[in-house]
Design brief:
2 copies of one chain form a homodimer. By secondary structure, the first copy, chain A, is an alpha+beta fold. The first copy, chain A, has one domain (8-178): Hotdog Thioesterase (Thiol Ester Dehydrase, Chain A). The first copy, chain A, is built from 6 helices and 6 strands; from the N terminus they run ααααββαββαββ. Chain A has helices at residues 8-18, 23-26, 32-46, 48-53, 83-104, 136-149, and strands at 56-60, 64-69, 109-120, 128-133, 151-162, 165-178. A 6-stranded antiparallel beta sheet of chain A has the order 1-2-4-5-6-3. The longest helix of chain A has 22 residues, at 83-104. The radius of gyration of chain A is 17 Å and the shape is globular. The two termini of chain A are 14 Å apart. The interface between A and B is large, with 41 and 41 residues. Strand 3 of chain A pairs antiparallel with strand 3 of chain B, so a sheet runs across the interface.
Chain lengths: 181, 181
């Protein structure tokens, strides 16, 4: 099993650190903008179908993650967005939200999508943004569990809105196995 | 909203009928092998991401539908199959199973994926086949409802096995609105 982020990420993080004062080295510094670009590059290099979908990480502020996807490569026979693409971007966004949470806390693990459910409430006709905001309390509980037992599960919700209304509501359970040093 | 099958399907069916005795014309004849090829061609022409996944209709016997997909374009960072691709093929297979059931009964409607749930029980490392078998009794009830009210919902299960074991278990609810003549 390979981590989603190749060694290039560590290089980016190291370069970001070196641009700040030496104190920054004491508290690990994450350049979130560079991380978004690196994640997108990794997806497009290592997950061909995500490259075909054109999904890119738009923003990440330490708690909320937004992934933008163009409609054209994801269109269906109705001229709206294929249900499979809407779901795929959700399951990927949730996966990456877990990955980022581990990263922010200096942890490493292999993350699996275990189960999920999705509701399609409205057709999506246009480029779309998938959002995932982690719940701080639930996240902390999962991280403690992971440190103590080497295994944890995280329940996340992702959403896609269209025309000011909720179009897709996704919930996913992700299981993490800590990596042994 | 356009039907998934372009007029070419009707041409294929008409050609198939003409190869049989005149009596076949009295009872509409479906050339299921030609239909599988036509469905695949339609997907690849009209749903670009399904073309990128490489999914093809392998077989359909009037009740069971099998869709085959190669792993390579659907690989993830772990060297197994991307969860989004596994789901996408399931939601598509269920959609087409509903479409075929309507077709077999001489009905026409617009089909929407409304909601679904999926469990990932085992990683899929290799080409995979998604199967959907309709339940005759539930299907008939839905078709009666559609004829009577112009609207019906169908609950379907799709599965993907790997190495002789269930790898993915999907359930989906599809809503059909009858087309007005």
């Amino acid at each position: 099993m390979r981590p989603i982020i190749a060694p290039a990420f560590y290089r980016v993080a190291a370069e970001a650190r070196s641009a700040f004062s030496p104190h920054a080295i004491l508290q690990p510094m994450i350049d979130r903008s560079a991380l978004c670009d690196e994640l997108t590059a990794t997806w497009h290099r290592e997950i061909p179908i995500v490259a075909a979908m054109g999904a890119t990480v738009e923003s990440y502020d330490g708690r909320s993650l937004a992934v933008r996807t163009p409609m054209e490569p994801n269109r269906n026979v109705h001229g709206t967005t294929f249900a499979g693409s809407l779901y795929s971007v959700c399951v990927l966004t949730g996966w990456v939200a877990v990955w980022l949470a581990l990263r922010e806390h200096g942890l490493d693990g292999t993350i699996y999508a275990a189960e999920s459910a999705v509701q399609y409430r409205k057709a999506v006709a246009g480029d779309f943004v998938c959002r995932c905001t982690t719940d701080a309390e639930a996240l902390d509980a999962g991280l403690v569990q992971l440190k103590e037992s080497g295994r944890a599960s995280f329940d996340l919700a992702c959403t896609i809105d269209h025309g000011g209304k909720r179009a897709v509501a996704f919930t996913g359970r992700y299981v993490v196995h800590a990596k042994r040093p």
